[in-house]
Amino acid sequence: MRWHRFKMVKQNMKSKNVSSVSKYYAGKNVFITGGTGFLGKALIEKLLYSCNDIGKVFMLIREKRGVSAQDRIKSMLETEPFARLRNERPQDFKKIVPVYGDLVADSLGISPEDQEMLFEEVSVVFHLAATIKFNEPLSVAMKVNVEGTQEVLKLAQKMKQLESFVYMSTAFSNTSLQRYHVEEKMYPPPKPMDEVYDMIKSNDPNECFNSEILDGRPNTYTFTKALAENFVVDNHGDIPCVIVRPSVVTAALKEPVEGWIDNWQGATPVLSLIAKGWVRCLYGEKINNFEIIPIDYVVNLTIISGANCKKSKDVPIYHCCSSGSNPITLKETSILYTAESVKHGYNELPLPGMIFSKSSWILFLMTLIFQVIPSYLADLFLYVIGKPARYVKIQTKLASYLDTIRFFSSQSWNITNDKTRGLYSSLNSADKKLYPCDANLIDWKQYIPIYFRGVKQFLAEPAQKKRQ
């Protein structure tokens, strides 16, 4: 009896030290859209690295700007996030199988032979592909974000081994000027689908829609992601399905490389210019939540949710965000980010810092004094020493960019993450260590400097080398 009890305890201890999430993916084949994007690269790397025994990773990919799909994958695997796999297990790259196609084509433009292969072999689908441009014409955003999702789901419904369909949305799909508290639940669609297509048909080619027409959404990106969510929920049928909603995805906290980031999107451009001292005024309030999340937390939640997906009429929704449980304000972020900038001598003007205001007149005056006039003076100095002017051009571009993010800097949301935290707490100790995704684990005083150093190392310095 004692021996039996000892054996049971030993087995329980052993199970806590083995990743059940990684074990779930053992021998399973997955299909990924958006695999060459920021999130896609990190997801593929993490699946290959932490789920050692995973089967094939089918990756939807097309030729782009004259570069073949095969060459695009080859170039991708030579980048920073795949360094540890290149060094430790380069043979795992053979698990990546390109599936030639296009998100905006019927049946994703996949050949009948490749479709049959996916129907027979795929167990998990990760649909990440989307256009994330805020100012995308509505017809384009609909084609990619909604109709593309329809095609992926249609394909998934024919997969004989399918156990999990993970749809990547955004935490801002249901934020608006009227809704400041967003829960992990489904919200009604912003407009009926036929009404949206009528809007497209009756509008001018530029398709410029304001927030009022988009049901309180600030842009066509968040609007179409809300529509796509509703389509998935209404049409998933018997497919086990889950929706992941990340907030603004930023540099890696730890994986695949500390600080890794590969794009100038989201909050990164304005934070970089704040760090240099060229942006000192922002429309908003200093106490507003700055809703960001490291990319590795998003990837980890995506993998965990895929492994815990169950067949149900209800579609679980998980938020990967920080404001609901571990918020950081705009002011706190700017202080930490500029402090790291000064420490590394990154600032081009002395004493970088931020002024926040919701008064248009104060903002205009402060911008003129602290940004516009210094830019003209700086360009005059460059002219005198024989170098090309550039700072006024930066301010011009910046004004347009700040208009697109004004909705986000001027509001403060509470986006809950209780279900995500509950899912994470249900994991065993091995999985908690391998797949951290609870925002409460983030120490902002540690992370924001990592974010800065990542932008400097992976974006700013390579861009500067190209200019030289």
Automatic annotation (TrEMBL):
One of its GO terms (molecular function) is alcohol-forming long-chain fatty acyl-CoA reductase activity. GO terms for cellular component: membrane; peroxisome. Its EC number is 1.2.1.84. InterPro entries: FAR (IPR026055), FAR_C (IPR033640), FAR_NAD-bd (IPR013120), NAD(P)-bd_dom_sf (IPR036291). Catalyzes the reduction of fatty acyl-CoA to fatty alcohols. Belongs to the fatty acyl-CoA reductase family. This is Fatty acyl-CoA reductase.
